[in-house]
Amino acid sequence: MRRVSFFLVPTFQRHVFVCVNERPPDHPRGSCKAKGSPEVRDALKKALKARGVTTEVRANNAGCLDQCETGITVVVYPEQVWYGHVTLADVDEIVDRHIIGGEVVERLMLPDQPHLEGRRAFGRLHLPVLP
Amino acid sequence: MRRVSFFLVPTFQRHVFVCVNERPPDHPRGSCKAKGSPEVRDALKKALKARGVTTEVRANNAGCLDQCETGITVVVYPEQVWYGHVTLADVDEIVDRHIIGGEVVERLMLPDQPHLEGRRAFGRLHLPVLP
After folding, report:
1. How far apart are CA B85 and CA B2, in angstroms?
2. Which of A1, A22, B27, B95 ranks highest by number of CB atoms within 10 Å?
């Protein structure tokens, strides 16, 4: 039996979390899952794969991020940029502009993000230089 | 009917993700859920609540963080510190030393975290000064 005894911890330059929390259909707060967040997550994963950046970036499901009313909620770390009302149509822009390009997609940003201290650019993804 | 029309986006000083991914019991990689990660998540949330820091810190479920073999996996943002083999017995130490105190729990760290550049202290949580 083969045993794998050595694992490298990933060092993601960006780690994207998509809320997939589900509430009952009649819940007053709504829920990201009911708005189609699993499809957004799938599209995000697919877009990262298509651009060949799955070593540098990971997209994950997240439990309730408590922004249900403005979901679908997506948060990008390490900068902790909160996006709201995200749809499938926004995925390419989030990936290309923010995740790869390092500039936030201002039109999708939720308000009141004082931790960003006004910053809107965080640097491009570092990609290996191919020979 | 009361309508809430104004929402503040949370500005978490630390955001903790606990992998709750489940694989079939006979899967060679194992899974965090099978190792009891939902209980670790619950204990983490309870500990944060007990310390009165749920405004400053959030704990969430995460999908597969791809460290199945060394799970239960917990990652703390924004510093992106990866912990492995986390058990219920470790929760208080992670909360008090790292999440509140800002110093990593070295004995639980997964190896190979070059993004930390050797740093092991990231500053205490900023808490409101009570009158």
Report:
1. 45
2. B95
